Amino acid sequence: MSLQTIDFDRLRLEDGDTILDLGCGEGRHAITAYMLKNVSSIGIDLKPADLQTTAERFREFEEPNNSAKSLGLAVANGAKLPFPDNAFDKVICSEVLEHIPDYPPVLSEIVRVLKTGGILAVSVPRFFPEWVCWQLSDAYHEVEGGHVRIFNAGHLREDLESCGLICFDRHHAHALHVPYWWLKCLFWREDGEEDAGAVRAYHRFLVWDLMKQPVVTRKLEMALNPVMGKSVVMYFVKNSKQPGTPG
To answer: Is the pLDDT at 78 greater than 80, yes or no?
Structure first.
């Protein structure tokens, strides 16, 4: 079981879809899509080690006798996708754009490879929880591969809509993870030593919650997400006309 940011019901995942998980990391969304429907799921990332982890995790869920579904993995740059125009029914870009210094070319590539009428699900850290992390620790966002910006979700939506996408849904996720990252930043360790006791304790709680998913914490997170959800998730459909590129 892995932590999902994207709601696959809102993504409108269907049998026969071809899906791109851009910046798939260790494969949580690419593998979940494969498990849910008979789809062709493709995960790309810049880190071969993460793709190797994805491949290892996938072995537990692979259905070798089902030719109607597949999972492919490749090292690729989101600003120069190795796919033809209109190649995918669905594209996922979850917790990726905040790591990319020049992200508009990635948005343009997403729109290029997404079919007309196809759906994009994109998520980035929400402004306020992320802003608090930046105030508590410079190291949080200065580490190699860390976050290079705090997104204003409205501005990101405008960038995507300027490419010809139409936003049709939005929600927030992972409110229960916000205190963990605030604690992590407050007690940030740059020396490689073990995290503070409060950080370790809260991490154990999150692992327990992920594995057990008790009703009480599910309801609590649903109530807190609109107020302090760590991620903002938006869903777009590609229009038939592509008026321009984000600036």
So the answer is: yes
> Pairing mode, if any, of strands 40-45 and 231-238?
unpaired
- Backbone Cα Rg of the chain: 18
Q: Which of 123, 19, 122, 89 is CA-nearest to residue 238?
A: 89
Instruction: Give residues with Cβ within 8 angstroms of 73, minimum separation 6.
Output: 24, 27, 30, 42, 43, 44, 45, 51, 54, 55
The residues with which 44 forms a beta bridge, in sequence order, are: 22, 74
pTM, rounded to two decimals: 0.93
Superfamily in which the 8-126+144-173+229-238 domain is placed by CATH:
Vaccinia Virus protein VP39 (3.40.50.150)
Helix (H, G, I), strand (E, B) or coil at 201: helix
Q: What ranges do the domains of the chain cover?
A: 8-126+144-173+229-238
Q: Three-class SS of residue 40?
A: strand
- Cα–Cα distance measured from residue 132 to residue 185, given in angstroms and rounded to the nearest whole number: 9
β 114-125/88-94 pair status: parallel
Band (pLDDT 50/70/90 cuts) for residue 75 is: very high
Any idea what the Cα angle at residue 96 is, between residues 91 and 100, rounded to 5°? 120
Segment (H or E) for 49: helix 48-58
How many angstroms separate the CA atoms of 173 and 102, rounded? 25
Q: Which are the contacts of 86, defined by CB distance < 8 A and separation ≥ 6?
A: 113, 114, 115, 116
Q: Which residues contact 61 (CB under 8 A, 6 or more apart)?
A: 31, 34, 35
